[in-house]
Amino acid sequence: LWQALARAGLLGLAIDEAHGGMGFGFYSLCTLCEEAGRTVAPLPLIPALVCAGAALQKFGSPALQQEWLPGLASGELMLSAALEEYSNDDPTRPTATAARNSDGWQVSGSKICVTIPAGTRRILLSAGSEQGLVALLLDPSVPGVTLTPQTVTSGETRYELNMDQAEVAAADVLAVGTDAELAMGWVLQANRAAICATAVGLCDKMMRMTGQYTSERQQFGRAVATFQAVSHRMADCYIDVECLRLVSQQAISLIDQDRPADEAVTIAKIWCGDVTHRVSQAAQHCHGGTGVDRDYPLFRYCLWARQLELSAGSSAQLSGSLGARIRDEYSAT
């Protein structure tokens, strides 16, 4: 499937034409993520194209861009990213550390739930150092790197990435200090926005799948969809999906235009967590026992919904941080 996207040119949507891409920008890339969510396609679009590829496109040196972006756009090589998933969810405050040496950097620490597809050549990650934050590209095959498989809620295999003085060449450093904070802060926003886009496609499909099922399912001689309780439930799902679409597109468009997007992204991810939960629950209830039958596709959508709900910050966590930010701004005035 990844190679099919490569042949269609879709892997290079947000990569400049000079590097073999289409140069359409971040908004188009998130449209691809939305379609992947609609089909629950098990593709590493977000770690490979959003976190690693788009970050290189925006913050990488010409040498780094020329080395990695053409191969990523053509499907000849794979990149990924390791953020602070389920830790503090903020790659600008990593738990891993890095120390400078004569040839580059030595990185130690761990990251969990890292997507590492077969043949991954580099993993974008951040580490703290005496020089400040360091954003770099780690080769997962170097000595000192250990990968332990983990099965996550969606059923996908991810990895615990442990590093013990793993060597990173100076040429594979994306940024150091305030430049690294800027780069990884952008990656966090892009990651959350792309998750929201994926959730839009996912929830829209769950809603429509449930609408079709309840229109065909007969009970007491009539379609279940004609029962007021069911129709109201699906109307609520429709409102939820359209609200999620609106706030997600707002956040994505701000990122695409290089405008401040932190608050919009936070609000979108809060909606993402709430809507994936509510729509998944409603879809299960309206399907009855069919919803949990693994011969029927809904269970895959519900597992993905749960995964997206908690990835890159839960609604409760982000609502708390947004509230604290509003409080601090009010106190300052």
Task: Provide a descriptive summary of the structure in words.
With 333 residues, the protein is an alpha+beta fold. Helices cover 52% and strands 19% of the residues. It contains nine helices and ten strands. A four-stranded mixed β-sheet has the order 1-4-5-8. The longest helix is centred in the middle third of the chain and has 39 residues, at 178-216. The mean pLDDT is 93.
Proportion in β-strands: 15-25%
Termini separation (Å)? 53 Å
Going by helix content, strand content and strand pairing, the class is alpha+beta
Number of strands: 10
How can the largest sheet be summarized?
Answer: 4 strands, mixed
Can you give the helix content as a percent range? Answer: 40-55%
Number of H/I helices = 9
Q: Give the mean pLDDT.
A: 93
